[in-house]
């Protein structure tokens, strides 16, 4: 690895850190600009000015916005994500099991969608403009055009309500065996995989087709390189950058962008928690969720960029 | 003054010795079976769910409250008070109340119930920091003290013959003295808590040490499915046995599929309140005109699909024994409305109407009203605002805005909180000293027929004078799988007043479980 590559990677990490700070400050600011605060959510219709004042004081909401932000940041830097304004429980405890659920769902969806989309993308690039390519193309376009709630709701109607084959609720707590895991996760994973698949297939196909039309591939062919060796050794290393980027972008949405799937299957994930927290103005929980989403996103995109940088012939030179 | 025991005075408490709270004559008749696991889905749930009875404010919270805790008094399906943790409740003057506690009652941690627990449980509502939903009502208790380990004395700030009903409000459930952490509920209720994850699930198992009639169910699992479609699907696929808040449009389909429906005439209403101290409401003609413009029958048919009862701009629902049925029903009269609105001088103006999904069905009611207004040349602008923050940001602040009021266990409470001159929840800022004095009389009178007359007069005053328009009372709809037995409608709220778990049992021929 040469110094220029290191510099590029360093710059990439710096940009990621800056994005993180920007997102955290923005989310905090926006949550505070929203009308009302957590006392509204707790007291609701029963709120009287006196009760609101006492509760605001107890929760520290009467302090200035800047103080509250530094207080929160100081805690986070020391590994303390604070306590929920609604029930006083530790935010880390509230997020922990839900993050676990979300990672499980995202992981299972990625495990299905990444291999399938790479396979479909690469093969349709190889057999470009054949019937196979057209069929894959039309199918993926079709899937990306149907909103996930339609796919998910139809699946529930057919497999749960009509056929009684699968549960309508994704009850993670009931999973104790592989069979239960498959029956609980089949529909949510299939719905998520279908919507994330399309983008990855199309990007992979485009990157591979581009590489395969390069003169050096023709040269390799003329030299008599076999088809499998041609794809794996000559083509993929040069197409890996855009492919990894497409995969990273698709996967990053699997953690935070699955509110709809969580709602349809009543899946206790972290997106739903954040939506709840925003509507009840539970700022520490909102912040912690935002932090988790942002770190995941930055990790994936930075990882993809580093792979891209390293895959450049310049970077590959040791 | 002659000593009058509540037991003698109030016919409603007479049956208390025979009817143990929650047990029903109907359930005995059909030979219930003990055992089984019931899975229930409520409609509201979030990370803000709590096991602190004082702060419980959502339907699923109330269910948990009834599973794990008991009050001194319980309310039956007609809102009549019965003894629960109290064994006797006496007052000579409705001002000082002596409460004798039931003996041999144990908390889930094995400790015995004492007067100290009751004093602690009631007094904590008066601390604003606790965030109690019943802060205002708790403040009417001037002193709460333990006279002996089984005797509690409460002195109110003014006589109130409906105090037993107040003690039946589930927020006033009894907790162990000194409890500050409600992660694990330590109550006296029929179920113990096995698992509670806010916003995800609650698992309750039968409390073998329960003081009362033991529930049939071995265990209850409660989850919240806020998405309507997902909730109905979960019932139809057999994932849950019982759901609350059924969409009226789906009732027919569910019935055809063999599912049972419970329609409860709860006293909940969505009202349009016109602030009498702001621009439009200052004109009595305007207020009356709007009342004549509300097409109550149309709202009943097209907004509630028939699952509601027509209201008469006063808060006592028709099924209450105190309902004034001689008060003429106000009906849709566009001509009268046009005349009155013209006389008020606002006919040419565009009237803003604030509604929100937070106030059930208010958006639809606003649209029905807007259409009726357009027919007589009265322009209205419907402002639909978001649900979060509605109760603090908009409710009772807009000149014309919607509210949603839950039933109270006694008419005096409904009147006191919503219509008394000094109440912070007087939605239309209606001040009527005659009404206030009738309310005081009603709360201190011993004579039930006089009380009824007073409540009748008050309904008339509210209907004609206040700025609160009540077009309909809503019915709550629950749906259950065929193997669930023992559910009945209740005026106390959905799912048998949130207290189904004490009475429901499961039939052996249960449907296929996934």
From TrEMBL, chain A:
Signal peptide range equals none
Family label: Belongs to the binding-protein-dependent transport system permease family.
Q: Which Gene3D superfamilies match?
A: MetI-like
Q: Name one GO biological process term.
A: transmembrane transport
Q: From the Swiss-Prot or TrEMBL record, state where the protein is found.
A: Cell membrane
Q: List UniProt keywords, sorted A-Z.
A: Cell membrane, Membrane, Transmembrane, Transmembrane helix, Transport
CDD domains linked to this entry:
TM_PBP2
Give the top-rank taxon of the lineage listed in the UniProt record for this protein: Bacteria
Transmembrane feature ranges: 12-34, 103-126, 138-160, 181-201, 244-270, 290-312
* GO CC annotation: plasma membrane
The source organism is: Gluconobacter cerinus
Output this protein's name: ABC transporter permease
- UniProt xrefs under InterPro entries: BPD_transp_1_N (IPR045621), MetI-like (IPR000515), MetI-like_sf (IPR035906)
- Annotated ABC transmembrane type-1 domain ranges read 99-304
The question of whether Disulfide bond is a record keyword is answered with no
Q: How does it sit in the membrane?
A: Multi-pass membrane protein
Q: Which Pfam families match?
A: BPD_transp_1 (PF00528), BPD_transp_1_N (PF19300)
UniProtKB/TrEMBL annotation, chain B:
Molecular function terms, GO-annotated: peptide transmembrane transporter activity
> Solute-binding protein family domain: which residues?
82-423
Which positions are tagged coiled coil?
none
UniProt keyword annotations, A-Z: Signal, Transport
Q: Report whether NAD shows up as a keyword of the record.
A: no
| Keyword presence, NAD | no
**Domain of life the protein comes from:** Bacteria
Q: Which family does it belong to?
A: Belongs to the bacterial solute-binding protein 5 family.
Under which name does UniProt file this protein? ABC transporter substrate-binding protein
Organism of this sequence? Gluconobacter cerinus
